[in-house]
Amino acid sequence: MTNYDYDLFVIGAGSGGVRAARMAAALGVRVGIAENRYLGGTCVNVGCVPKKLFVYAAHFHDDFAAAKGFGWSVGEPQFDWATLRQQKNQEIERLQGIYGNLLSNSGVTVYDGQAQLLDAHSVQIGDQKLTAERILIATGGWPVIPDIPGKEHIVSSNDMFALEALPKRLVIVGGGYIAVEFAGIMNGLGVETTLCCRGDKLLRGFDDDIRDFVAQEMRKKGITILLDSHIEAIHKSAGGYQLITDSKQILVADLVLYATGRSPNTAGLGLEAVGVATTDIGAIKINADYQTNIPSIYALGDVTHHISLTPVATAEAMALVNQLYTDKRTPVDYDNIPTAVFCQPNVGTVGLTEAEARKRFADDVVVYKSVFTPMKHTLSGLGEKTLMKMLVQGSTDKVLGIHMVGADAGEIIQGMAVAIRAGATKAVFDSTIGIHPTAAEEFVTMRTAVK
After folding, report:
1. Is 306 a catalytic residue?
2. Which domains does the chain possess?
């Protein structure tokens, strides 16, 4: 036992913080945790969970349209935003309750409020001062709104989950996964949607074929995509808002969403006073053991601005707790982390992009690619296509990357990620019997490389 109030005090009750707190407490560690907004963090409240629920809602637009091709006659569909929002709120409240119970049942003491560092072993929450042998910062990220004329008219992705009413016309500024996902959601719910991206392609960091194919499929669904376009100012008008681009084009909207990135959520933590080192964008600097330059203070997850994914934060939490309180080391392997973009159709990807593979292996890269109409859409009349792509190192036959745009891509790529992490070769895929008829079987029937 120590003379501190806690052995470990966690700031931030999101995915990473809660996992670390629960795991440590289960090992007999005295743990406290502070949260100033909502249990579950971004993912549960204004991220992964409500977004996926909204994606499901948006999909019904296509499902109703597809029904006729299968012999179903349906009336004119009617969508009620207030019902979806209320249903979503009830589910989020249920999950918040689960998080609270998980913490309390684990023996973790929960504090409601902003925790501020006082020194290497102390935090202040309101009028209360607490001490801890170690402090873990897991406060996640927060949307970035650029400082442009008319900034006060902009909403962030956080705000989209609590809109009082759906807009008729929406302009989304950004080209990353949040922008792309909300474009699909809002379009599917009947909103006239324009996506304005300053880059020449959407989804920077993804495989180029995926980026082009996603834009093509989004446009087919009626989403307007403006590339190489930058917003210089936003003005309030009688009919909504006017956005002025760098080419002096005027876009008109009832709502303006900026999804132009997220920054580490470090405001109010007192990092400067204690001397915790940060990067030029405010990310907390850590070593390979998640330790800051102050030996008793640690950080993980989005606040370090490394790989901003919920499962990565929880994996880091497990690695840190095992490292600090057990004799078992479980370091996180950051290679071949799978991810998905829940646009329509979905994106799923794992491993190297083609550009990364060629940079690493030059001409020793063999590409397999297939574009086809999935079975459902042979009758649906929607014209939606699926893209599958596999990258293989020619000299070793090892699969380097797998990428997909199509229905349930995230579900399919999760299994592909296991194969890639196991070091599967193209021969292993070729010898695997496919499940017929599925889209996924295409990955084990690809035989002809792209020239």
Report:
1. no
2. 6-142+263-325 (3.50.50.60), 151-260 (3.50.50.60), 339-444 (3.30.390.30)
